[in-house]
C-alpha cells in the first residue's frame, strides 16, 4: 500500500445522473477526508471520518451529497442528481489521529457534468 | 470558506532565482502547513510549522510564521523548472488538528 487511491480518476456524466467516487486511504490511517477543488481555487473541505464515524460535514455538503465509510476502511462519496456546478476535482486524503495533522492526498477524481 | 489567502496569486521567475509566497490567515491556529500541487494531481505535503515556532527549514524550503501578524511565508531557494506548481497554505484551527482549511494558492512558474 503506497498511498491514497481514488477512482475513477475521471467521470463525465449528464446532468441529473448519480455518480459515486471511491477512496482507499493508507491502511493504517483512521481519518479520511473529502475535499472539493474547482479550477484556480484551493481545496474546500466537505466532510471527514474517524474510523466509520462521520465527525464533521461542511455546509457545502448539500443533501444531494452523501459520504460513507462503512467499515472504517474505504469511503464512498455519492452525488445524486448532479448539476453542472458539481463539476470539480474531488480529493480524498487520509491521516492518522495523533499525527501532526499532515494529510496524504490521493490523485483526485475529476467530475465533469454536461 | 477559506481561511488563508496566498499572495501573489501567480508568480513567474527564472530558474535559479528564489521564490517567495505569502499566506495570511484570520483566526488563531494550532499549526500551518504548506502543500504543493502539480497540475491535475493531488496535493503533496511540504512542511509544517507549529504556532510556537517562528522559522523552519527543509532542504531548499524555508518557512516563517508570525502569529502576531497572522502570516506565513514560504521561500524556495535556487528554484528549478520542476518547482513549477501551485502552492497552498493550510491552517489547522483546533486542537484536534482537523480539518485543514486551505487558501486559494499561488501558481508558481519557473522558466528554464
Helix fraction of chain A, binned, reads under 10%
Distance between the termini of chain B: 36 Å
> Please, how many helices of chain A?
0
Question: What's the overall geometry of chain B?
Answer: globular
> In total, how many beta strands of chain B?
11
What does it look like?
- The complex is a heterodimer of chains A (114) and B (112).
- Chain A is mainly β.
- In chain A, the strands form 2 sheets. In chain A, strands 2, 4, 5, 6, 9, 10 and 11 form a 7-stranded mixed beta sheet that branches. A 4-stranded antiparallel beta sheet of chain A has the order 1-3-8-7, with no helix packed on it.
- Chain A is built from no helices and 11 strands.
- Chain A is 0% helix and 49% strand.
- In chain B, 0% of the residues lie in helices and 55% in strands.
- In chain B, strands 2, 4, 5, 9, 10 and 11 form a 6-stranded mixed beta sheet that branches. In chain B, strands 1-3-8-7-6 form a 5-stranded antiparallel beta sheet, with no helix packed on it.
- The relative contact order of chain B is 0.35.
- Chains A and B meet through β4, β5, β9 and β10 of A and β4, β5, β9 and β10 of B.
Briefly summarize what is shown.
The complex is a heterodimer of chains A (114) and B (112). Chain A is an all-beta fold and 114 residues long. Chain A contains no helices and eleven strands.
Fold blueprint:
The complex is a heterodimer of chains A (114) and B (112).
Chain A: E1 5-7, E2 10-13, E3 19-24, E4 31-37, E5 44-50, E6 53-57, E7 65-68, E8 75-79, E9 88-95, E10 104-105, E11 109-113
Parallel strand pairs in A: 2-11
Antiparallel strand pairs in A: 1-3, 3-8, 4-5, 4-9, 5-6, 7-8, 9-10, 9-11
Chain B: E1 5-7, E2 10-14, E3 19-24, E4 31-37, E5 43-50, E6 55-58, E7 61-66, E8 71-76, E9 85-92, E10 100-102, E11 106-111
Parallel strand pairs in B: 2-11
Antiparallel strand pairs in B: 1-3, 3-8, 4-5, 4-9, 6-7, 7-8, 9-10, 9-11
Task: List the keywords.
heterodimer; A: 114 residues; mainly beta; 4-stranded antiparallel beta sheet; globular; B: 112 residues; 6-stranded mixed beta sheet; 5-stranded antiparallel beta sheet; 11 strands; 0% helix
Amino acid at each position: 500500500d503506497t498511498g491514497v487511491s481514488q477512482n475513477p480518476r475521471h467521470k463525465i456524466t449528464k446532468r441529473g445522473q448519480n455518480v459515486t467516487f471511491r477512496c482507499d486511504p493508507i491502511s493504517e490511517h483512521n481519518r479520511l477526508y473529502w475535499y472539493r477543488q474547482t479550477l484556480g481555487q484551493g481545496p474546500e473541505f466537505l466532510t471527514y471520518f474517524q474510523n466509520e464515524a462521520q465527525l464533521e460535514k461542511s455546509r457545502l455538503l448539500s443533501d444531494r451529497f452523501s459520504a460513507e465509510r462503512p467499515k472504517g476502511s474505504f469511503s464512498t462519496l455519492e452525488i445524486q442528481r448532479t448539476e453542472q456546478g458539481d463539476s470539480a476535482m474531488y480529493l480524498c486524503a487520509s491521516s492518522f489521529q495523533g499525527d501532526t495533522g499532515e494529510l496524504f492526498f490521493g490523485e483526485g477524481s475529476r467530475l465533469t457534468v454536461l | 470558506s477559506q481561511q488563508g489567502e496566498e499572495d501573489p496569486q501567480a508568480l513567474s521567475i527564472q530558474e535559479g532565482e528564489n521564490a517567495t509566497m505569502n499566506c495570511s490567515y484570520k483566526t488563531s491556529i494550532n499549526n500551518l502547513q504548506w502543500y504543493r500541487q502539480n497540475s491535475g494531481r493531488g496535493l503533496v505535503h511540504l512542511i509544517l510549522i507549529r504556532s510556537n515556532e517562528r522559522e523552519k527549514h527543509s532542504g531548499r524550503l524555508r518557512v516563517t510564521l508570525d502569529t502576531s501578524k497572522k502570516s506565513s511565508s514560504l521561500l524556495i531557494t535556487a528554484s528549478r523548472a520542476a518547482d513549477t506548481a501551485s502552492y497552498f497554505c493550510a491552517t489547522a484551527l483546533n486542537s484536534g488538528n482537523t480539518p485543514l482549511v486551505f487558501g486559494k494558492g499561488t501558481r508558481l512558474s519557473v522558466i528554464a
